[in-house]
C-alpha cells in the first residue's frame, strides 16, 4: 500500500486568483449536491433553448458590411440586385436544341415555378418567357421590338422558327441562351428579406425548394438542370452540414475509446464525457439566447467545444488517478486536483477565449458569430470542467483497474520519458533549437506563396466533383457571359448620368478594362446607347458611337431598359465580366479601377467601387488581408501577456510562445503548398490553433515548475513532468487530432481543409510543447523563474 502523499505544493503567482480558488473550494465541495442540482437545472433550461436554434445563413452576413465597397453597393442595392445575389438556372435539352415545343413548354413551367418560390425578386427575374426580355431590330420601316416567345405561341414550326429568329435578334446568345443553343438560363435575383413577413431568406429552405420543385420535378432523360449562385452554394453547404451528426458521433466514440484506453476507468470516462457534453449543450443554448443561429461555419463550434473539453479533462483524470494512487481518499484527491489545475487550467482556457475572440476584428458576420460561439464554448468549459468535474470525481473516484495501471506506470522504466528528458541538456537543447530555426526558415519561405482569397474556379468551399461545381463548369463552358461580374458605379448629379462627359469617361474606362487580363467584356448604359443611335440611323455601324448632341443621347437613353441606370439618373453601373474570381484576377481589376477612379473622378462625376458578386468578393479579400496581420498580432500579443501574467517570466513566455509561432508559419506553408487561400473559411484556423495549442505549454510548464520548486534539477523535473502531464498532453494531442481529422471525409471542402489543418496544428503543437519548450527553457535559463517564485502550501 503506497504511503500517503504530503500536502500538495502549488506555486501561486497571483493572490487574486488564489483567493478565487480558496473561495470556490469550500463552496463546491461543501455543497456538492446543491452544485450538481444547479448544473442539472441550467443544462435543462439551456437544452430547451437549443430547440429554438435555426439555420441563419444570409448574404449580408457573409460580406464585410462596413467596407466602403459594400457600403457603396448597399446604397444602390435595389438597382444592382440583378448583379449581386442571383441564382442562375440553366435548363439543358439533352436531345437537341431549345427550339422544340416540349422544351419551351418545360421552360415555361420551370419559369412559373421559380417565379412563385418565396425569396425571388419577381420584377427583375429574366427568362425567355418573361416580358422584360425582348428583341430589337432595325427594318426599312423603322425599329421594331417584341417578346422572344411571340404571343399565341402554339409550338408550330412557324412559331418555333420565329422564336429562333427572335433569339438571334435579341442579342441573348451567350447570355440567356447557350452558345450551342442547347440550353437557356433563368436568372432569379433574390430578396434578402421577405417584403411581406420581414423575415430573412432561409437559404437552406430555398435550396431545398429548388431541388424539389425544379431539379427533381423536371430533370429527366431529356432535361438537365444546372443551378449556380451564392444561394445555391450556401444551400449545398447547409445540406452537407446536416451530416455533421455523423462526424460528431465519430468524435464522441473516439473520445470515449481513447479516454478509456488511457485511464482504464469506465466511471471517470463516463463523468468526463458527461461534463464535456454539457459544455456543448450550454454553448449551443447560450448562442440561441444571444439570438444567433447556426450557419455552415459556426456549426463546427460544438465539435471544438467537445474536443477542447475532453482535452482539458484528461488532466483531471491523470491528476486524480495519481493522487488516489498516492493514498488520498476520493474527496481529498478531488480537492487536490482542483487546487493543482484551477490556475493553469483557467489561464489556458482564458488563452483559448482570447484566441477565438480576436477573430472579432474581422468585420464579417459569420466570422464574428464563429468567434462568439467558440468563446462562449470555451468559457462554459471553465464551469463544467473546473467546477462540476472535480465534484463528480469526488463521488465516483477511479476504478481498481485505473489504480493498477497507475501502479504499472510507477514501476515502469519510462524509457521514452527518460529519452525525451535529455532535451533539457544544453548540448541536445541547442540541436533542438537549431532544427526548430531551420524548420521556421523553410516554412517562412514557403509561406510567402500564400494568397488571399479563392484560388480555384467555382465554389472552393465545395469539392471540385460536387454537383454545384459541375453545374458551374457547364455554365462557364456553354455561355459567353461570365457568372463573375465586377461592377464599377459612376455617380453624377441627378439627371446627368447619360451626358456626354460621363459617356466619354465611361467609354474610356471600358476600353482600359477590356484590355486588362482577366476581363472578358464590359457593358454599360452607353453600350446600349451606341447601338440605339446606330439603329436610329438606318443601322449604319458608323453611327455606333456616343454623341455630343443631348437630344440624340436622350432619345437613345429613353429607348433602353431602366436597369442600366437608377431612377433619377444619378448612377450608371459599368459591368465587367471576369474570366474567374481568383484572388489574382480580382486584385488586378481592383488596382486598375482604383487607379482610373483616382485619375478621372471630379466634383461632377465619381467612379466608386464595387458591386457584383466579384466586387463583393474583392472587398472580402481586402478585409481579410487587412485583418490577418491585426488578428495575429492581437492573438499572439494577448496570449503572451496572459502567459507572462501566469508565470511572471519573459523567458518562460518566449519558451511557450515560440513553438506556437513556428506552428502558425508551418500551417501557412502547408496552405500555400495545398493551394488553399486565406479566406473566410481558413483564416479562423490560425487563431483556433494558437488558442488551443498554448494549453499544452501552460500545463507542461506548470507541472515542470511544480517539480522544480520541490528541488529537482531541470532534467529530473522534466522527467517527472513527462511521466504525468506529458503523457496526458500526448493523449490530448492525438485525441484532438483524430477528432477533427474525421472532417477530411466531409462533402464540404472547407470543413475538410479545416480538419486537416487543425489536426496538423494540434499534433505539431503537442510536439512543440513536449520537445521544443523544455529545450528553450534550458537555453534561456527559464527554470530559474520557478525558484524565485513564492510557494503557497495548500492542504
Automatic annotation (TrEMBL):
Instruction: Report the main location listed first in the record.
Output: membrane
Which parts pass through the membrane? Answer: 243-262, 269-291, 297-317, 338-362, 374-398, 428-445, 629-647, 654-674, 680-701, 722-745, 757-780
Output the Gene Ontology cellular-component terms: plasma membrane
Query: Looking at the record's lineage, which domain of life comes first?
Result: Bacteria
All copies of domain SSD, residue ranges? 278-395, 683-779
Enumerate the subcellular locations listed in this protein's record, separating them with semicolons: Cell membrane
Task: Classify the protein's membrane topology as the record does.
Answer: Multi-pass membrane protein
State the UniProt keywords alphabetically. Cell membrane, Membrane, Transmembrane, Transmembrane helix
Instruction: Please give the name of this protein.
Output: RND family transporter
Amino acid at each position: 500500500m503506497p504511503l500517503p502523499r504530503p500536502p500538495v505544493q502549488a506555486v501561486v503567482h497571483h493572490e487574486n486568483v488564489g483567493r478565487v480558488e480558496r473561495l470556490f473550494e469550500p463552496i463546491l465541495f461543501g455543497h456538492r449536491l446543491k452544485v450538481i442540482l444547479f448544473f442539472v437545472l441550467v443544462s435543462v433550461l439551456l437544452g430547451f433553448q437549443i430547440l429554438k436554434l435555426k439555420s441563419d445563413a444570409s448574404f449580408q452576413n457573409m460580406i464585410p458590411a462596413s467596407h466602403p465597397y459594400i457600403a457603396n453597393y448597399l446604397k444602390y442595392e435595389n438597382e444592382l440586385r440583378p448583379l449581386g445575389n442571383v441564382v442562375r438556372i440553366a435548363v439543358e435539352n439533352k436531345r437537341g436544341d431549345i427550339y422544340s415545343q416540349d422544351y419551351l413548354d418545360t421552360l415555361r413551367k420551370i419559369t412559373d415555378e421559380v417565379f412563385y418560390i418565396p425569396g425571388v425578386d419577381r420584377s427583375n427575374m429574366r427568362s425567355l418567357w418573361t416580358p422584360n426580355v425582348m428583341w430589337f431590330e432595325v427594318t426599312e420601316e423603322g425599329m421594331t421590338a417584341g417578346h422572344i416567345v411571340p404571343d399565341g405561341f402554339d409550338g408550330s414550326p412557324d412559331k418555333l422558327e420565329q422564336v429562333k429568329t427572335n433569339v438571334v435578334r435579341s442579342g441573348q446568345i451567350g447570355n440567356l441562351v447557350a452558345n450551342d443553343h442547347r440550353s437557356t438560363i433563368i436568372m432569379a435575383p433574390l430578396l434578402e428579406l421577405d417584403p411581406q413577413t420581414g423575415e430573412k431568406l432561409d437559404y437552406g429552405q430555398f435550396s431545398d425548394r429548388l431541388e424539389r420543385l425544379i431539379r427533381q420535378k423536371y430533370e429527366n432523360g431529356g432535361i438537365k438542370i444546372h443551378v449556380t449562385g451564392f444561394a445555391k452554394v450556401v444551400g449545398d453547404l447547409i445540406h452537407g452540414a446536416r451530416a455533421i451528426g455523423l462526424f460528431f458521433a465519430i468524435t464522441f466514440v473516439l473520445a470515449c475509446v481513447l479516454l478509456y484506453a488511457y485511464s482504464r476507468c469506465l466511471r471517470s470516462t463516463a463523468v468526463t464525457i458527461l461534463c464535456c457534453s454539457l459544455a456543448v449543450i450550454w454553448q449551443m443554448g447560450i448562442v440561441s439566447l444571444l439570438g444567433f443561429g447556426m450557419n455552415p461555419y459556426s456549426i463546427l463550434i460544438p465539435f471544438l467545444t467537445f474536443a477542447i473539453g475532453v482535452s482539458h479533462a484528461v488532466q483531471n483524470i491523470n491528476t486524480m488517478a495519481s493522487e488516489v494512487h498516492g493514498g488520498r481518499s476520493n474527496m481529498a484527491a478531488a480537492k487536490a486536483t482542483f487546487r493543482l489545475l484551477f490556475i493553469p487550467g483557467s489561464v489556458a482556457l482564458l488563452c483559448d477565449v482570447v484566441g477565438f475572440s480576436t477573430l472579432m476584428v474581422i468585420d464579417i458576420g459569420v466570422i464574428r458569430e464563429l468567434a462568439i460561439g467558440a468563446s462562449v464554448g470555451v468559457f462554459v468549459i471553465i464551469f463544467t470542467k473546473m467546477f462540476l468535474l472535480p465534484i463528480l470525481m469526488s463521488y465516483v473516484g477511479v476504478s481498481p483497474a485505473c489504480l493498477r495501471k497507475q501502479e504499472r506506470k510507477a514501476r515502469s522504466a519510462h524509457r521514452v520519458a527518460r529519452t525525451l528528458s535529455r532535451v533539457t541538456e544544453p548540448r541536445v537543447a541547442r540541436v533542438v533549437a537549431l532544427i526548430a530555426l531551420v524548420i521556421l526558415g523553410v516554412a517562412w519561405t514557403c509561406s510567402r506563396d500564400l494568397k488571399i482569397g479563392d484560388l480555384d474556379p467555382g465554389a472552393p468551399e465545395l469539392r471540385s466533383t460536387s454537383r454545384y461545381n459541375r453545374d458551374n463548369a457547364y455554365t462557364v463552358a456553354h455561355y459567353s457571359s461570365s457568372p463573375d461580374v465586377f461592377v464599377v458605379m459612376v455617380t453624377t448629379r441627378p439627371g446627368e448620368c447619360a451626358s456626354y462627359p460621363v459617356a466619354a469617361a465611361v467609354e474610356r474606362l471600358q476600353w482600359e478594362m477590356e484590355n486588362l487580363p482577366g476581363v472578358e467584356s464590359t457593358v454599360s448604359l452607353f453600350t446600349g446607347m451606341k447601338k440605339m443611335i446606330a439603329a436610329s440611323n438606318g443601322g449604319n455601324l458608323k453611327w455606333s458611337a456616343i454623341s455630343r448632341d443631348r437630344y440624340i443621347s436622350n432619345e437613345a437613353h429613353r429607348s433602353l431598359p431602366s436597369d442600366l441606370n437608377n431612377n433619377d439618373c444619378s448612377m450608371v453601373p459599368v459591368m465587367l465580366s471576369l474570366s474567374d474570381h481568383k484572388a489574382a484576377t480580382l486584385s488586378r481589376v481592383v488596382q486598375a479601377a482604383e487607379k482610373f477612379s483616382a485619375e478621372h473622378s471630379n466634383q461632377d462625376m465619381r467612379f466608386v467601387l464595387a458591386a457584383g458578386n466579384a466586387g463583393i468578393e474583392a472587398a472580402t479579400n481586402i478585409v481579410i488581408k487587412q485583418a490577418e496581420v491585426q488578428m495575429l498580432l492581437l492573438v499572439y500579443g494577448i496570449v503572451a501577456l496572459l502567459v507572462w501574467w501566469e508565470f511572471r517570466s519573459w523567458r518562460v513566455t518566449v519558451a511557450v510562445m515560440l513553438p506556437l509561432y513556428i506552428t502558425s508559419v508551418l500551417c501557412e506553408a502547408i496552405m500555400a503548398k495545398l493551394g488553399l487561400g486565406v479566406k473566410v473559411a481558413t483564416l479562423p484556423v490560425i487563431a483556433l490553433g494558437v488558442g488551443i495549442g498554448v494549453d499544452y505549454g501552460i500545463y507542461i510548464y506548470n507541472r515542470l515548475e511544480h517539480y522544480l520548486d520541490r528541488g529537482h534539477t531541470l532534467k529530473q523535473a522534466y522527467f517527472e513532468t513527462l511521466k504525468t502531464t506529458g503523457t496526458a498532453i500526448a493523449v490530448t494531442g492525438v485525441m484532438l487530432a483524430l477528432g477533427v481529422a474525421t472532417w477530411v471525409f466531409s462533402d464540404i471542402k472547407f470543413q475538410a481543409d479545416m480538419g486537416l489543418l487543425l489536426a496538423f496544428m494540434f499534433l505539431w503543437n503537442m510536439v512543440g510543447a513536449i520537445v521544443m519548450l523544455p529545450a528553450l527553457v534550458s537555453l534561456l535559463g527559464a527554470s530559474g523563474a520557478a525558484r524565485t517564485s513564492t510557494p503557497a502550501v495548500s492542504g
